[in-house]
Design goal:
The chain is 38% helix and 18% strand.
Length: 483
């Protein structure tokens, strides 16, 4: 009898042990999986119990949570959502995107910095309130970029920076979308809206400013010029360079021509003239003479190839692998395997404007508690030195000349000295070339640096960036300078 009881007792103990192991397994190991399970409606309602903080730019509220006093307590609303969609992202029933994602724990109040605030809310039986995020965006620049790029009627992106700090003053990508459609507290409706956007061949969810790269075309000649000035400190705007109508490329019978095979001067021109007219052959020859390693080293000084978070993730720009001299010639004029984000090319313009110093770009200016206390504030941070102050001064002079009498006259602002460079980049899919412009203003005390990218928006010659992209940049610079 005692033996039977002992066996029963042991069996009970084993079962209780297994039960305890299972409970701990479910609560500790599987907890996050169950919590994130789409069938967990408790989690669904919990997402809307906290009052997410506001996202602001200047004096404008871009995103806020509205108290419905219903089962879904707080609903997220976006103001001018289409204009800011690729910056803000969205807060959806099961996910976040953009700033809503990168700053999620601050916005929903669960960050460690807000532990005291959460305790007070708990004691007073109030909903948890999140921190407010103040962006660096200048609403004037953002609106000008959005409206001007829309008038072009093409896919593209605009990025504007404060060259002295790296603060992002505008970031626009087209086509865009309405984040309010993805913030509805209704899984079915949000899924339907998202799937429609995701299936759109024009990719409205894609942030063309930072999430993908393109051949930068002749805007990259600014980097090639910087490499020459670094190699030869005596070189400058009046330095003579070879400018044949067609440049012979080693290892191939196909030469590299200027645009449409046109002559660029008399065969030997000043460096400033070559940049003004965006001649291909001088810069291709400079690249070949300097070699791949020096060209790559100069690119790295502009931050090209470095991972970036602003805090949104930025696709890495690249000069491509080492190939033959013919490939290097093409890369030196922004073609071949050369791939840049519009943000990266804005950084190139900003470095020239800022006496050769590249500042780390950033999008969040300040984090403010629900009570108005500053939790964190971004301090401008130097990323690298792209060139000497003297080289930057020479390059700035040449870029001003490009706008005054070269391919970028459409970027002129009355009473303001503007520097810039146009670009047209051939594509590999037989689509029309991309149109680019990078620039800054005022040249004597730069307050804004900008890059405009128009996807398949060029007519096919080196002035296309001037006709299509430069006017957009002019509108953005003028908005910041209030001209």
């Amino acid at each position: 009898m005692n033996g039977t009881l002992k066996r029963v007792a042991i069996a009970c103990m084993v079962m209780f042990g297994l039960l305890l192991v299972n409970v701990n397994y479910l609560q500790a190991v599987k907890a996050e999986e169950f919590r994130s399970d789409n069938r967990n409606f408790r989690r669904f309602f919990e997402r809307y119990e906290n009052q997410r903080g506001r996202i602001t730019a200047g004096n404008e509220v871009l995103a806020e949570s509205v108290d419905t006093e219903g089962d879904i307590r707080f609903e997220r609303r976006y103001h001018n959502g289409r204009m800011y969609a690729h910056v803000l992202g969205f807060f959806a029933p099961e996910s976040e995107r953009g700033i809503e994602a990168t700053e999620n724990r601050l916005l929903d109040g669960t960050a460690a910095d807000l532990v005291v605030r959460r305790a007070v809310d708990l004691l007073t039986n109030k909903p948890t309130r999140g921190a407010n995020i103040e962006l660096t965006i200048d609403p004037r620049a953002q609106r000008a970029a959005y409206e001007s790029l829309r008038r072009v009627g093409k896919k593209g992106a605009v990025v504007a920076l404060d060259p002295k700090t790296g603060a992002i003053k505008a970031m626009v990508s087209l086509p865009t979308y309405d984040p309010n459609q993805l913030a509805l507290p209704n899984k079915a409706k949000v899924a339907q809206a998202y799937n429609k956007l995701d299936a759109d061949k024009d990719q409205p969810l894609l942030n063309r400013a930072i999430e993908t790269t393109y051949a930068p075309g002749s805007t990259y000649k600014v980097v090639t010029t910087a490499a020459l000035l670094a190699e030869d400190e005596t070189a400058g705007p009046q330095t003579l360079v070879d400018a044949p109508q067609v440049l012979d490329l080693p290892g191939t019978t196909v030469g590299l021509p200027n645009n449409a095979g046109a002559a660029c001067g008399t065969g030997r021109v000043t460096l400033q003239f070559a940049l003004e007219r965006s001649c291909n052959t001088p810069f291709a020859k400079i690249g070949m003479e300097l070699g791949y390693e020096k060209m790559k080293e100069q690119a790295a000084k502009f931050g090209i190839g470095e991972p970036l978070q602003i805090p949104l993730n930025v696709a890495p720009s690249s000069v491509g692998p080492k190939e033959d001299l013919a490939a290097l010639a093409q890369a030196s004029i922004g073609q071949r395997s050369m791939q840049m984000t519009p943000l990266q090319m804005a950084m190139v313009a900003a470095a020239v404007a800022n006496d050769g110093v590249v500042m780390k770009p950033y999008l969040v200016n300040k984090v403010v508690s629900p009570d108005g206390d500053t939790i964190d504030e971004t301090d401008p941070d130097e990323l690298s030195e792209a060139m000497s102050e003297d080289a930057a001064r020479k390059l700035k002079q040449m870029m001003v000349s490009v706008v005054q009498q070269g391919t970028a006259t459409a970027a002129q602002i009355p009473g303001v000295s503007v520097g810039g460079k146009t670009g047209t980049a051939e594509t590999s899919d037989n689509a029309p070339p991309h149109a680019w412009f990078i620039g800054f203003a005022p040249a004597d005390n730069p307050q804004i640096a900008v890059c405009v990218f128009v996807q398949s928006g060029a007519a096919g010659d080196q002035a296309s960036g001037g006709r299509t992209a430069a006017p957009v940049a002019r509108d953005v610079m003028r908005a910041v300078l209030q001209q």
